[in-house]
Amino acid sequence: MQSSSIRDLTVDGPAGVLHVSDGGSGQRVPVLFIPSLGGTIGQWAAQLDHVRPTRRALAIEVRGHGRSAAPNDGDYSLDAMARDVDAILRHLGIARVLVVGHSMGGGVALAYAAAHPHQVAGLFLVDPIDDPKRRPAGDTASFLRQLESGEYARAIEGYWTQILVGAAPDVRTCVLEDLRRTPRETVVGAMKAMGRFDAAAAIDRYPGPIVSIITRFNTFPSSLQNIAPSRVRAVTIDGTSHWIQIDKPDPLNGLLDEFMK
């Protein structure tokens, strides 16, 4: 029997302790929320409050983020983060789940679905990462060099500021504070790992429904809806930063309700 109370849990993952928020109740398939690079569970607060009155909902902090430990093996790949998701769901005895992922969390959601296609009832991606294999050659090399130099803080906050255009001041403050609390080695390691992720192959291995809620920042040839138009249904929300779930919680929650029916 599921409890409607909210529990903060720690789960032993393959490479370190992982932080999980678990709450809500109901007989329908639970929902798992995965935040972005530099993100925390708090960035899903509006969605958790919306879903938990009628359905069990979990949110995690991926390795090296928030209260989750940095990996003892130094592996920040999305496949490794997907193994963390598997460890959490096994620990909680959850056999099937709807997965919601923002930005890098969308890549983690895809990686988990590719590895466990029959355990994922659907993927609801919020402005997810693109497929780096479809980007122009060397497109991110210069940025990665900046992150590994003395220019780290300026470079990473400059990039975050660009994709925060359209955010309310309190959203901008929240997001930048989460980023600053995220260790540099986590950010750089995850950035490098995202550059090696094969999103198209992951989509091919997952036969279930995929919807991608996108912003104006996500219209590249390498965006998921463009590399797999027959598999990824895209819906655009205007007037928002990259952090749709905080900027525009009501429209996003409405789309999530439609997807969960």
Written account of the structure:
The chain is α/β, with parallel strands linked by helices and 261 residues long. The chain has a single domain (7-260), classed as 3-Layer(aba) Sandwich (Rossmann fold), CATH 3.40.50.1820. Helices cover 40% and strands 18% of the residues. The chain contains eleven helices and eight strands. It has helices spanning 45-51, 78-92, 104-115, 141-147, 152-163, 169-181, 184-194, 199-205, 224-227, 244-247, 249-260; strands at residues 7-13, 16-23, 31-34, 57-61, 97-102, 120-126, 210-214, 232-236. It has an eight-stranded mixed β-sheet with strand order 1-2-4-3-5-6-7-8, with helices on both faces. Strand 1 and strand 2 (16-23) form a beta hairpin. Helix 2 packs across helix 3 (104-115) and helix 3 crosses helix 8. The longest helix has 15 residues, at 78-92. The mean pLDDT is 95.
From the structure above, extract its key features:
globular; 8 strands; 11 helices; 40% helix; eight-stranded mixed beta sheet; alpha/beta; Rossmann fold; 261 residues
